[in-house]
Amino acid sequence: MAFKREIQGVVVKIAGEKTASILVERKVVHPRYRKIVKRFKKYLIHDERNEVKVGDTVIAVECRPLSKRKSFRLKSVLATGVE
Fold first, then answer.
1. Does residue 1 fall inside a structural domain?
2. What SUPFAM superfamilies does UniProt report for this protein, alphabetically (predicted)?
3. Does residue 54 lie in a domain region?
4. Which residues span the domain enclosing 31?
């Protein structure tokens, strides 16, 4: 069985039925200046039961492509956010 990537991020938008948009932050070392900088990327995740809300911290796991931009499923909700 292939390794499934897991990403952790904050829900920034509910993007339609059974879909949420999350913002994932990672820290990398700048190649020239050797300073740690933040990089951000948005992912669409599949939320089968519509349980996430804006501001929640979630973990998503990689799956087969469900649409053009959606290749992650919701695994668990770590913390609920405040609106």
1. no
2. Nucleic acid-binding proteins (SSF50249)
3. yes
4. 6-79
Chain center to CA of 41? 8
| Tens digit of pLDDT at every position of the chain (83 positions) | 678 999 999 999 999 999 999 999 999 999 999 999 999 999 999 999 999 999 999 999 999 999 999 999 999 999 998 75
First to last CA, the chain: 39
- CATH number, domain of 40, equals 2.40.50.140
Token pair belonging to 57 = 């911290």
Contact 72, 47 (CB under 8 A): no
Separation of alpha carbons 23 and 29, rounded Å = 20
Place of tokens 């990689």: 62
Q: 10 Å Cβ neighbour count for 56?
A: 20
